[in-house]
């Protein structure tokens, strides 16, 4: 990993701390709530911009993180929930992911409104691809991809099947860890 990564992560960690200190279940959807939720990810975008000599993959990841922040903003307002969800590895890494996604979807689909079934199936396939590529990349990207799957599974179960205790804390803690781990994967030595 890059030797200055810890120092560069300080704004991200501070923004995460502020989020967890200020967020409450009673927090109403607002632009302030959206900024509070998106700020940690925006700090990672700035981190990648501040790292000298990063190109290609890092710049692509910056765009991905920006899209993620927009999705986070959409998830603040319940009526925009659907909008917020919207090097080759070894082939054996991808074999279990579609099966796991199909199994999870078979449990989740009966609890979804009909309008959500197709978008959720498409999202599950996308998440399976992210998991496959993250595992293929190795390092912090692998852990990030696994945590991303856990975070989204908890979020979906809580939203569509049955409320889970402390689901928001689990979802957001794993989600912010995912973003940091995937960002750090760009800083590893070639």
From TrEMBL:
User: Which EC number applies?
Assistant: 3.3.2.2
Keyword Cell membrane attributed: no
Is Cytoplasm a UniProt keyword of this protein?
Answer: yes
Q: How does it sit in the membrane?
A: Multi-pass membrane protein
Record's keyword terms, sorted: Cytoplasm, Endoplasmic reticulum, Hydrolase, Lipid metabolism, Membrane, Transmembrane, Transmembrane helix
Q: Which GO terms describe its molecular function?
A: alkenylglycerophosphocholine hydrolase activity
Catalytic reaction equation(s): a 1-O-(1Z-alkenyl)-sn-glycero-3-phosphoethanolamine + H2O = a 2,3-saturated aldehyde + sn-glycero-3-phosphoethanolamine; a 1-O-(1Z-alkenyl)-sn-glycero-3-phosphocholine + H2O = a 2,3-saturated aldehyde + sn-glycerol 3-phosphocholine
**What Gene Ontology terms for biological process does this UniProt record contain?**
lipid metabolic process
Q: Where in the cell is it found?
A: Cytoplasm; Endoplasmic reticulum membrane
Pfam families the record matches: YhhN
Q: Which residues cross the membrane?
A: 7-25, 31-53
- One GO CC term on file: endoplasmic reticulum membrane
Q: What job does this protein perform?
A: Catalyzes the hydrolysis of the vinyl ether bond of choline or ethanolamine lysoplasmalogens, forming fatty aldehyde and glycerophosphocholine or glycerophosphoethanolamine, respectively and is specific for the sn-2-deacylated (lyso) form of plasmalogen.
PANTHER family (alphabetical): GH04784P, LYSOPLASMALOGENASE
Belongs to which family? Belongs to the TMEM86 family.
Its assembly, as annotated, is: Homodimer.
- Official protein name in the record: Lysoplasmalogenase TMEM86B
Phylogenetic lineage: Eukaryota, Metazoa, Chordata, Craniata, Vertebrata
